[in-house]
Amino acid sequence: IFLLSSIFKMTKISSNIYKLSASAYMRVALMRYLRRRWWIGVLLLPFVILSFEDSRFLFVALMVVFLVLPMFIVFVYFNLSFSPECVASIRRCRVNLTSDSILYYYLDDENNITSSKFIVFEETDRIIIDKTNILIHLKTSKTFAFYLIPISAFDDAYEIEKWKMNMMSLHGTLVREENV
């Protein structure tokens, strides 16, 4: 009983000051996007099969791989990179996690607070926690735009685990854990 009461009495967890790189955000975003759009790879299958009959279909498959797919990835990249969630996630900041909200403090180079962002969990569509990141999808965001908090920004992994268990018990289906 003491363990459960100590989990639910948790006040807040503060991260260290961190700055997420744009490539780290895009790596997570593109992998999540392509995992949901797995059928894009199936479009190459007819060309590969037909290339056994006629070698010209192999060139068509190569054109799709080297011309069409990169244009598709660039479209996704620019669609996500200008979202407010991406811009907010890659700024230099410190994050406070509580059982009912997330507070971002955006900092300049001298560690002065320039602005802040307050997110209550009533505004969130879902929170995904994997081995390395916490992803927060808002109800008003684009389909694949999310706030990204690296778990490495926190000193104590046990505190994150307690926060995760607390969130799963309080908010139920809003929070889910993924092993990616």
Number of strands: 8
Strand order of the largest sheet: 1-2-3-4
Q: What is the residue-averaged pLDDT?
A: 85
Strand content: 15-25%
Order of helices and strands: HEHHHHEEEEEEHE
- Largest sheet, if any? 4 strands, antiparallel
User: Counting H and I runs of at least 4 residues, what is the number of helices?
Assistant: 6
Shape, per Cα inertia axes: elongated
Overall helicity: 40-55%
Rg of Cα set: 20 Å
Q: Which class best fits the helix and strand makeup?
A: alpha+beta
- Straight-line distance between termini: 32 Å
Low-confidence stretches: 1-8
Can you walk through the features of this model?
This protein has 180 residues and is an alpha+beta fold. Helix content is 42%, strand content 23%. It has six helices and eight strands; from the N terminus they run αβααααββββββαβ. The chain has helices spanning 2-8, 22-36, 45-50, 56-81, 84-89, 157-171; strands at 13-14, 93-97, 101-107, 113-120, 124-129, 133-138, 147-150, 175-177. The strands form two sheets. The chain has a four-stranded antiparallel β-sheet, with helices on one face. Strands 7-6-5-8 form a four-stranded mixed β-sheet. A hairpin with an 8-residue loop joins β6 and β7. The longest helix is centred in the middle third of the chain and has 26 residues, at 56-81. The radius of gyration is 20 Å and the shape is elongated.
Characteristics of this structure?
single chain, 180 residues, alpha+beta, 4-stranded antiparallel β-sheet, 4-stranded mixed β-sheet, 6 helices, disordered N terminus
